[in-house]
Amino acid sequence: MIIAKTPQAEQELGTPARLASFVADIARLQLDREKILFVCIGTDRSTGDALGPLVGTMLTENGWPRVIGTLGEPCDAHRVEGAAAAAMQEQSESSLTIIAIDACLGKPQSIGGYMLGSGPLQPGAATGRQLPPIGDYAIAGIVNRFGPKAYGMLQTTSLHLVMGMAREIVSAINEAWYIHNSESSKSSVFSTEKMECK
User: Fold this and answer.
1) What is the mean pLDDT of the chain?
2) Which residues of 58-83 are buried (b: 16+ CB within 10 A; e: fewer)?
3) What is this structure's pTM?
């Protein structure tokens, strides 16, 4: 995975704290959880590439209504094109914000960090596959080092690391929308009280 090279795409390497800030920025722009669609790319047949499906499963378990890609129904290389088409159709019908989540390979010192981008994600880039770009925003967890045998690197990735990163992503997402929805509710209550005092 890489962030697709489009004119509007911007990407950065982020720590877990920057991940939380990045997701919080998205939540500020779109408070309504019903308007967020997560496309979690990967497979349950490879530890490194299971990051997306793990995140999708956890998001579903946490009550997020729009998730493509779980351990039960992974959005793998064979399904990405269909998922991209379905996501685009849902987006056009319901004005959704699409957040794409995937695993990627990187430098040894970057393992455990995140590539964060405003713009679409390009799935399959690390393994040389030509798959359609997807998403308004992209989160890619760097699960292992890049090498000549990308599939092998993904297959031998630490499951402990991937599970921890999946929890970090889901925690950042849940916290961002909980905080911003709480602030929105407080603001609404405050406004109502002011109106009643008049």
Assistant:
1) 83
2) bbbeeebebbbbbbebbbbbebbeeb
3) 0.83
